[in-house]
Specification:
With 243 residues, this protein is α/β, with parallel strands linked by helices. The protein has 8 helices and 11 strands.
Length: 243
């Protein structure tokens, strides 16, 4: 039976250097509940290391947590890579880590905090997560698909780190599953501006708990999974974006 799921597919945790410690697993889940969100995409910059903790924090809730990351391509384009299996997300992370130069400077960029579902600090990532990988955009998308994920171009309505802001256009040969707009614009407005070449989703890109759900997409699905969202993006078997 199909039902409506409200999704926010772009959430950062305290691992992303541009967030604060209040983006902990329990705070993220609590804020999602308050916002009526039933699907969360955990997408820290160039890492999925905290997504498993959020998945565990959601076990006794009705919230479906999707592990992923926001990968920065060689061209400095942000792409959401989302997976049903944390193991597949981790495969992409391993590839990203091998191609992510530099070390973090906490004084300049902020702490990159690794936590578990109990809010315990496990350590700090020394990778330069805020930086760009040396992986071309089309290769990031190919790898995401190889590991059974979906690739969504982040916040195309912004200049900074968006595919349109960085390249000026979306190349014809790019096999994205969808594009994302921020909460500053509605999906309906975005369709008029950016055409219907790709499905359009809206997410919050939340860096603070109170921002979770400010941008969201409603899907008609059988379950809150990437496999179902993939069908919705293709309007297959009754699955679709409904708002």
């Amino acid at each position: 039976m199909l039902k409506t799921f409200k999704a926010d597919l772009h959430i950062h945790t305290c691992l992303s250097p541009c967030t604060e410690l209040d983006m902990s697993p329990s705070n993220i889940i609590a804020s999602a509940k308050n916002s009526g969100i039933s699907i969360l995409g955990i997408c820290d910059h160039n890492s999925t290391e905290n997504s498993l903790a959020v998945m565990k924090a959601a076990i006794k809730t009705d919230i479906n947590v999707i592990p992923g990351m926001e990968v920065t391509s060689q061209e400095e384009v942000h792409v959401l890579a989302l997976f049903d299996d944390w193991e597949n997300a981790n495969k992409l992370q391993n590839h990203v880590y091998k191609n992510l130069p530099g070390e973090n400077d906490e004084k300049t960029f902020g702490m990159q905090v690794l936590v578990n579902e109990k809010e315990e600090v496990l350590g700090f990532s020394q990778k330069l997560l805020i930086g760009a990988t040396i992986i071309p955009l089309d290769e990031i998308i190919r790898l995401t698909h190889q590991y059974d994920g979906i690739a969504i171009a982040s916040h195309i309505d912004r200049e900074a780190f968006s595919i349109i802001g960085q390249l000026g256009f979306i190349p014809e040969n790019i096999e994205l599953d969808a594009v994302e707009v921020s909460s500053r614009i509605s999906i309906e407005e975005a369709r008029n501006i950016y055409s219907d070449r790709y499905p359009i989703t809206c997410s919050s890109d939340a860096h603070h708990p109170e921002d979770i759900g400010k941008g969201q997409t409603s899907f008609l699905l059988k379950a809150g999974t990437v496999a179902e969202i993939k069908k919705a993006l293709k309007n297959k078997e009754g699955r679709k974006i409904v708002g």
